Amino acid sequence: MNTVRFLLGQELIELESVSPTLTVLTYLREEKKKIGTKEGCAEGDCGACTVVIAEVVDDCLHYRAVNACIVFLATLDGKQLLTVEDIKTTRNELHPVQQSMVDSHASQCGFCTPGFVMSGFAEYQNRLHKLDDLPESQSDEAVTTQLTQVFAGNLCRCTGYGPIIEAGKTWLIQAEQTTPQEITEAEATIIARLKAIHPQTSKTLTQAGQTYIQPDSIFALTEALAAAPGATLLAGGTDIGLWVTKQHKALDTVIYLGCIAALKRIEVRGGLLEIGAAVTYSEALPVLIQHFPTLEEYLYRHRSTQIRNAGTLVGNIANGSPIGDMPPVLIALNAQITLTSQRGQRPLALEDYFIAYGKQDRQPGEFIESVHIPLNPPGSFGVYKISKRFEQDISSVSAAFYVELDDQRRVQTARLCFGGMAATPKRAALCEQALLNQPWNEATVQAAAALLGQDFMPLSDFRASREYRLTVAMNLLKKFFIQQQNPRQATQISYTGGLIHA
Ligand SMILES: Cc1cc2nc3c(=O)[nH]c(=O)nc-3n(C[C@H](O)[C@H](O)[C@H](O)COP(=O)(O)OP(=O)(O)OC[C@H]3O[C@@H](n4cnc5c(N)ncnc54)[C@H](O)[C@@H]3O)c2cc1C
Ligand code: FES
Ligand code: FES
Fold it and tell me: Which ligand is nearest the CA of 160, by number?
C-alpha cells in the first residue's frame, strides 16, 4: 500500500502523499505544532533537535537518538517517533532522565535541554533492556567517558556540562542497577502496533512533483534505479539532509535504502567481513571493534551518537569525499565493494572507486551493495584522525597504515592511505615503495616519510594549511612506527587529559 505509517508517540499517522525531503523537525514544529523539539543548527551538529526512533528488533523495542533536522519524515514508515513531549511515565511523572536533570540543576536557558533529555532517554531505555553493547560502567572516569560519548552530539552554551554529566551519572547508575526488564505492557502494545504497520511491500509516494520510492528488495531497487538512473539514493541522510537544509536543493526522486533487509546484513564469510549498504555506524561499530580493536577510539570520534545512529559506512564511501573518515581505513585494509545493477554484480577494489574529485567509478543504474573487509590481516595496523575538536569534527588529515614484516623484519607489504591530503582518499605510492624490502627501522621510516611531500600536494583551507597537513602526515607515520616498536611508550592523550599507551 502506498501509505507511510508510523506512530508519533501514541498517535497513528498515515500519509498518502509526502515530500521526500520534508524533515522530521519541520513536520513536528510546523505541522504538528510540537515545539518541544528545538532547531539550532539544522545540520546535525548541535543536538537541539534530538528525537528518538523506536523500532522492533528481535521482538523488543530498540531506541535510537537521531537529529530530527536531517531525518526525512517518509523514512519513519513502520517506526515510532518519540519527542520530549512523549516520555513522561505512565504515572504522569517525569522520566528518570528528566528528573535527574531537574535535581542536578542541569538546565539554564533550557534551549538544549530537550535534546540532552532525548539522548539520555534512548541510552536509558536501551540499558533497561540491556540492549547496548557499551561496557558496564565501573570507575567514575569510565562513567564520564560513556556519558561524553552519549552527549557528544549535544551542545550546551550556558549551563556547562558539569551538571549535565552529574545528572547523567544518576540515571545511568539507576538504569544499570535495575534488573534487566521484561517488556512492559505499554511496550508490548507498541510492539504489536508497530508489527501491524510494518512496511511489507515496496511503495512510491509523490507530492508536488517530487517522488519517494521505498523498495523492499534488491531486485526492486535495481528496477527503480534502472527506471530513474538520476534518482538520489538515500541511506542515513547525514550528507543528503544538509543538501536540503543548507544548500536548499530540491530532490526530484529519492530512493530510500533503509527498508531492504538484504542491505542490513553484517556477515563473516570466507575470511571477509561483509557490511551492507543500509548498516548504520552504530550497528557496524561493535563488530568492527571486535575484529579491529585498534579502530575503537577512531570510530567513537567519528561524529556523534545521533549521526552514528543514522549514517552508514557505505554512505561514507559513496559520497566520494576526500575527507571521509572510513575510506582511508578500508583502503589500508584492502577492502572491496560490490556494485550492483540490473546487469548484475561488479566487485571493485575500494581504492579504484575514487577516480578524481567528485568522480567515482559508479555506472548509471548501479549502487554500492556492500563493502567487504579481509579479516585477521597478519600485519600491524594503525589509524589516526587529526581534527580541531576531539569528537564530531571533520578531519584535517586522517591516516590508516597497514605494514607486514618478514622474518628478518623487512617490510613485505605497506598500505598507507591518507584522507585530506589529495582530491580523493589516496595511498602514498612513493612512500610505500621506499618502505618495501627495507628493514623496519627509524632510518627507513624517516626516509620514506620525507617522500610524502612528493606523494601529496595538499590544499590549504580553513581546516589546515598545506604545510601543516604535510608535517602532520609525516609525524603520523613516525608515531605509528614508535607505537609498533614500543607499545609501552605513552603516545596519546585520553579524554580526561592523561597520557595513554598505543
Ligand atoms: C554533524 C555531522 C558530523 C559528521 N561527522 C563526520 C565525520 O566525523 N567523519 C566523516 O567521515 N563524515 C562525517 N559526516 C558525514 C556523514 O555522516 C557521512 O559521510 C556518512 O557516512 C554518510 O552516510 P549516510 O548513510 O548518511 O549517507 P547519505 O547522506 O544517505 O548519502 C550520502 C551520499 O552517498 C550516496 N549513497 C548512499 N548510499 C549509497 C549506495 N549504497 N550506493 C550508492 N550511493 C549511495 C547518496 O546518494 C549520497 O550521494 C558528518 C555529518 C554530519 C551531519
Ligand atoms: S538543529 Fe542542530 S542538530 Fe538539528
Ligand atoms: S541550558 Fe542554555 S544552551 Fe544549554
Answer: 3
Of the candidates 341, 374, 407, which is a domain's last residue?
374
Q: How far is the CA of 38 from the centre of ligand 3 (A)?
A: 12
Position 426 in a domain:
yes
Q: What is the pTM of this model?
A: 0.94
Regarding whether 346 and 290 lie in a shared domain, the answer is yes
Do 421 and 398 have their domain in common? yes
Ligand 1 pocket residue status of 45, Cβ below 6 Å: yes
Q: Which residue has the cell 567517558?
A: 145
Distance of CA 348 to the CA centre of its chain: 23
Mean pLDDT by runs of 10 across the 502 residues of the chain is 92 95 98 97 97 94 97 97 92 92 96 98 89 60 88 93 95 81 84 90 92 96 96 98 95 97 96 98 96 90 90 96 94 98 97 96 96 97 89 87 97 97 97 98 97 94 92 96 84 62 54
Q: Which domain holds residue 467?
A: 389-501
Rounded to an integer, what distance in angstroms lies between the CA atom of residue 148 and that of residue 264?
Answer: 28
Residues 6+ apart with CB under 8 A from 345: 338, 339, 369
DSSP state of 47: -
The residue whose CA has the least distance to atom 2 of ligand 3 is 109
- Ligand 1 pocket test, pick from 64, 319, 323, 370 with the greatest ligand atom count within 8 Å of Cβ, gives 319
Total tally of structural domains belonging to the chain: 3
What does the H/E/C string look like for 159-208? Answer: CCHHHHHHHHHHHHHHHHHCCCCCCCHHHHHHHHHHHHHCCCCCEEEEEC
Supply φ then ψ for residue 395, to 5 degrees: -70, 140
**420/343 same-domain check:** no
